[in-house]
Amino acid sequence: MQAAIEVEHLHKRYAHTVAVRDLSFRVERGEIFGIVGPNGAGKTTTVECIEGLRSPDGGHISVLGLDPGRDRAELREVLGVQLQSADLPDKLRVGEALRLYSSFYSRPADWRDLLEALGLTEKEKTPFSRLSGGQRQRLSIALALVGQPEVVVLDELTTGLDPQARRDTWAIVEDMRARGATVLLVTHFMEEAERLCDRVAVVDAGRIVALDTPAALAAAVDAEQRISFRPATPLDDRLLTDLHEVTGLQRHGETVIVTGTGNVVNAVTSVLATHGIVARQLRVDQANLEDAFVAMMKRNDDDR
Amino acid sequence: MTAEVAAPARAARPRRTPLRTLTLTELTLFVRERAGLFWGIGFPVVLLIIFGAIPAFRKPVTAADPHVSVLDSYVPILLAFSLAMIALNVVPPVLAGYREKGVLRRMATTPVGPVRVIAAQLIVDAAMTAVTMIVVLVVARVAYGVAFPRQAAGFAVALVLGAVALLGLGLLLAAVVPTGRGANAAGAILFFPMMFFAGLWLPIAAMPSVLRHVSHVTPLGAAVQAMTDAWQGQWPHPLQLVALACYAVAFPVVAARLFRWE
Questions:
Q1: How much is the pTM?
Q2: Which residues on B lie below 8 Å from A103 (Cβ)?
């Protein structure tokens, strides 16, 4: 099947810096694909090339079989773009903006449905300048979706939003996929990528340094895991320190903190179970995408 | 409309063309902003009413030509004032602001593209100029008995060339000044010397000959002189028409070449 987005050997340089070097990836249809990376990694440049806003210096891009440079007109009908920072005229009202943008497409969504889906119905007559950050972001998403795009690019979707607004926005993205759209998500929030994305490309200094599911990326980091609990009955430390997976044990008052690698969680819980020790307030801190990201960036820095 | 049959059932309302919707949107914003409405349309009309009420303005400019009153000579200046207000104090900040705020960038991601936003804005500005012209002509005629331009075709040519030249200049400012605020300042700075050469404070006819010659080749001075000539029944002097035509071609072309989209 034809990929939603195909990027092959993309290369883009500005006057004195190389923004993107030999970057390749493929986004399948119906996928939520994340691009994460530190500031200046080339994430935005990459998506701007995909959107046809910039022309690459080298490589090849195809979006649903269209070339963003050559087939601009067709591309804009099927590609919805939420830009990192793009405002509207201060006095333009929410409903007017949506009606205006829906007139740009040959088969637009009903903008009133979109308003409702994004919780903006009550704001229909509110001018842009009086919207909160979260409301502006939702309007921006609505404008990206009003043409019923098959592929949606979301750049720094939840930057500047409060936690509740961020969660609401995530639900909207999941809803987009449920409707069959392919989503390309640029973010520097690992939590966001972990929660939403099927696969994530980690970009640093214009290159992809890793590409996999968030879980696989996290698992690849051989980080220590931390288990903390309060034993209901007295516990002999040696029961746990004798396990080869356990690398350390500390006590803080009644709380026992065990650190270890590999399958340490299973090892510890089964020892506790065989000795009939109930672990209260059990907490396991495992490596997540953020740890993986930090580890990768550190490795990359060391290589340089 | 047959096109509606093929459209999805959800889009029950007839689809308007993007440029038309954009133009109506720009018009709504123009009215809501009020500055353009006040300075571009209201203020010239108020000035006309005030000038008309002053007895000295009803007297002839020179004893040699008793048919042309001071007020008559001011009507083209008021039209130039309106044109300059909109072209220099509305167009640059609005369009540079659109670039600064990312409105043009967002448009670039839609099938319509950013050029038509600019076109819509200029259509609205041209329409507002036409409205001002009609209001000023009618008020001057009805309230103060100022005759309509006697050389109507010459007047229309002068006005259209002047409007294109001025809007082109406004577009040029918007093209090269990066921010809305900067464009606002640049427009205001150009406005006063240009209005001086248009004869707002000192009628062109009363200027020392050096200033008068300069005035005749400035965009607004040439427009006012050409409109004044046409008003009094003569075809405008070729010098002014050529000057206006050059500006009307050069400003938009250079603006289009230099326009910074981001």
A1: 0.81
A2: 15-18, 21
